[in-house]
Amino acid sequence: MTATDMVAQDAEETTSGVDLTRPSGSRAARNGCASVFMVTATLLAVIPLAWVLWSAVSKGIGSLVHTTWWTHAMDSADQAKWGALHAIIGTVEIGVITSVISVPIALLTAIYLVEYARGRKIARVISFAVDVLTGVPSIVAALFVFALVVTTLGGHQSSWAASLALVVLMVPTVLRSTEEMLKLVPDSLREASFALGVSKWRTIVSVVLPTSISGIITGIVLGLARVMGETAPLIVLLQFNQYIDANPGSSTFATLPTIISNAYTQGSADTPTVWGAALTLIILVMGLNLVAKAVSRRFLRRMGK
C-alpha cells in the first residue's frame, strides 16, 4: 500500500464517524429556533439604531447645511442665525483635556497590571477598584468632583472641574480595554525580546505596545466617545452660555450635550437646533472612529501585517 493510499484510508476512517447529513428532525427544529433568535436579536439591535440615526439626520440636517451653524454661536437675537460653533469648541476642548489626563493614567496602569503585577494581590485589588469605577454613574462622579473641588478645596465651577469628572468615567473604559489588548500579546514575543538582551521597559515600548496598538486606540476612542456625550457632569459643574468662550477656567461653558439639555429645560426639546446638535455630536464621534481606524491601519502596515 502506497503512502497516498494510507493517507486516503486514514481520512476515510476519520470522517466515517461524522454525520455530514443536513440536520433533520429535532436537530433541524433546534437549528431553526437558534437562527430565528439570532435574527430577532440582530433586528432588535439594528432597528433602534437606524431609527435614532434617521431621526437625527432627518430633523437635524436642516441646521447643518447652513454656514451659520458652523460659524456662529447662539448669542444672536435672530434664531435663524443661531449656530453651534461655541458648543463644538467646548465639546472638543473638554474632550482634549479629558483625554490628556485619562489616557496616560489608563495606559500606565494597564501596563503595570499586565507586565509588572500580573498574579499579585495588588493587581487584583486594582482590578476590583476599576470594576467598581466602571459602574459609577456619571452624576455620582460629578457630585464627587463638586464636593472635592468646589466645596472642600474652594475652587469654582469650570471646564477643568467638569473634565475631572469625565476622567473618572473615561479611565476605567480605556484601562480595561488596554489591559485586555496587552494580555492578547503572546508571551513568546516578550521571551524572544528578553532572549536578545532587551530590557523589560524597552520590550514593552518596542514589542508589546506596537503589537496591541490597534486595540488600544479603539479603546481610547470608545472612552472618548462616551464622555463626549455625557451631560450630568456638565450640568453640575458648568453653567450654560450662548457665546464663544474657550477659556477652560470659565464657569460658563457650552457643549453639544448641554445645548440639548438646556433646550429641554426650557420646553423646546424638539427643535431643529436640538436635533442639529445631536447630529453634530454623532458626526464628531464618527469622525473620531474613522481617524482611529486610519491610524490603526497605518501602524499595522508599518508592522507588516
- Which range best describes the helical content: under 10%, 10-25%, 25-40%, 40-55%, 55-70% or over 70%? over 70%
Average residue-wise pLDDT: 83
Question: Helical stretch count?
Answer: 12
Instruction: Write the element-wise H/E pattern from the N-terminal end onward.
Output: HHHHHHHHHHEEHH
Region (Disordered): 1-26
GO molecular function: phosphate transmembrane transporter activity
Keywords: Cell membrane, Membrane, Phosphate transport, Transmembrane, Transmembrane helix, Transport
Transmembrane segments: 32-54, 84-113, 125-151, 157-175, 204-225, 274-295
Task: For the structure shown, list the relevant keywords.
305 residues, mainly alpha, two-stranded parallel sheet, transmembrane helix, MetI-like, MetI-like_sf, transmembrane
